[in-house]
Design a protein that fits this description.
With 109 residues, the chain is of the alpha+beta class. It has helices spanning 2-14, 25-36, and strands at 39-47, 52-57, 68-74, 88-96, 99-107.
């Protein structure tokens, strides 16, 4: 009889999660989504030699930056392929070593 109680308790305990989900999980998910969000922009200038783009952009949430036109370095020179002044893009930028770096870029549809 004692072994039946031990078995029942073991089964019951195995069905109970050891840790409840964090109460701030939705806030963390929202922060992560904002950090990964793409910003709409229009290419004003492409500098292939310097691996830089001048972009007129909307607010960049993860950087707390308002809409403006500014120069960004790009992570990879291949990101500049097919871009020219007037190209509509969506991009993600991060602050790196005191400057701003485009880490993801796609042509807007």
């Amino acid at each position: 009889m004692k072994s039946a109680w031990i078995l029942a308790a073991a089964l019951l305990l195995s069905a109970v999660p050891l840790a409840a989900p964090a109460a701030d999980a939705p806030a963390k998910a929202e922060t992560k989504a904002k950090a990964a969000a793409l910003t709409a922009g229009e290419v004003k200038k492409v500098d292939r030699e310097a691996k830089k783009l001048t972009i007129q952009h909307g607010p960049i949430e993860n950087l707390g930056m308002p809409p403006m036109t500014m120069v960004f370095r790009v992570k990879d020179a291949a990101m500049l392929d097919g871009l020219e002044a007037g190209s509509k893009i969506r991009f993600h930028a991060e602050e790196v070593k005191g400057g701003y770096l485009v880490t993801r870029l796609q042509k807007a549809k």
